[in-house]
Amino acid sequence: MTRSNAGDGTAFSAPAKKALGQHFLAEQLYIDKIVGSVDPRPGDRLVEIGPGQGAITLPLLRRHGELTAIEFDRDLIEPLTHAAREIGTLHIVHSDVLKVDLTELAGGGQIRLVGNLPYNLSSPILFHALDHAGAIRDMHFMLQKEVVDRMAAGPGSKVYGRLSVMLQAYCQVTALFNVPPGAFRPPPKVDSAVVRMVPREAATLGIDNPRRLSEVVRAAFGQRRKTLRNALSTVCDSSAIEAAGLRPDARAEQIEVADFIRLANSLRNE
Ligand code: SAM
């Protein structure tokens, strides 16, 4: 472990652990862009997933004064605590983020989530966050660009799928900017991108039964080349698809998010 007095960037360096998806952001331009996109305001409760060596943590702390960070790697806890000491109040939760009850962490309020996520856990972390959407005001995540493309895709796109529909059903999803491999140490093999997600107000969602929506979307895209009639055969019959105003011979990739919600709601009594 090497300590340095680097300005806003990493305050120390430790060997990256591949199994934990450790690719540390090193280029100041992108650190500034992330902090600028989050744009913390007084009173905000910031929670970072995977602070690593503090590339985003310390600049956010410098700007905002207080931050909670959830980090799984025991070896990073002490140096991170040390690096933050002079800058602000850093609360570190030493845990697997998937085991953290984000609603409890929000304590009745709403948190703002930030993270350059471990790419091997992107989808589980996104779905975990969705489970706690009511306690989250917004999320700014760095992910593989390919994943961000899928998250933000609309009907008709080749990459429109389960991830797009499920995330967009609950959140407004906006791809913000791309980040090249060279901005990280060590560089990942793929391009990255930063995405903003803003959970919709519970009252405006119109989702009667989240589990049923999930079941319908999973079945529809489980066999995306098939017609809805065939792909959804274990979930409902053609007449239910028609009753929801959809064509049984359409394919999942053509169906709008709102239509999936309407179809799932219409299956209430099936
Ligand atoms: N935020 C730092 C940066 O931008 O340089 C590090 C980002 S690195 C891509 C991902 C971070 O997530 C690492 O610090 C890694 O140890 C941490 N991590 C990996 N799996 C985790 C988990 N299940 N829960 C919490 N943190 C995790």
TrEMBL record:
Specifically dimethylates two adjacent adenosines (A1518 and A1519) in the loop of a conserved hairpin near the 3'-end of 16S rRNA in the 30S particle. May play a critical role in biogenesis of 30S subunits. It is found in: Cytoplasm. GO terms for cellular component: cytosol. S-adenosyl-L-methionine binds at residues 23, 25, 50, 71, 96, 116. Keywords: Cytoplasm, Methyltransferase, RNA-binding, rRNA processing, S-adenosyl-L-methionine, Transferase. Belongs to the class I-like SAM-binding methyltransferase superfamily. rRNA adenine N(6)-methyltransferase family. RsmA subfamily. Its EC number is 2.1.1.182. Transmembrane segments: none annotated. It comes from Pseudoxanthomonas composti. The gene is rsmA. Residues 30-201 form the Ribosomal RNA adenine methylase transferase N-terminal domain. This is Ribosomal RNA small subunit methyltransferase A. GO terms for molecular function: 16S rRNA (adenine(1518)-N(6)/adenine(1519)-N(6))-dimethyltransferase activity; RNA binding. It catalyses: adenosine(1518)/adenosine(1519) in 16S rRNA + 4 S-adenosyl-L-methionine = N(6)-dimethyladenosine(1518)/N(6)-dimethyladenosine(1519) in 16S rRNA + 4 S-adenosyl-L-homocysteine + 4 H(+). The keyword NADP does not apply. PROSITE patterns: RRNA_A_DIMETH, SAM_RNA_A_N6_MT.
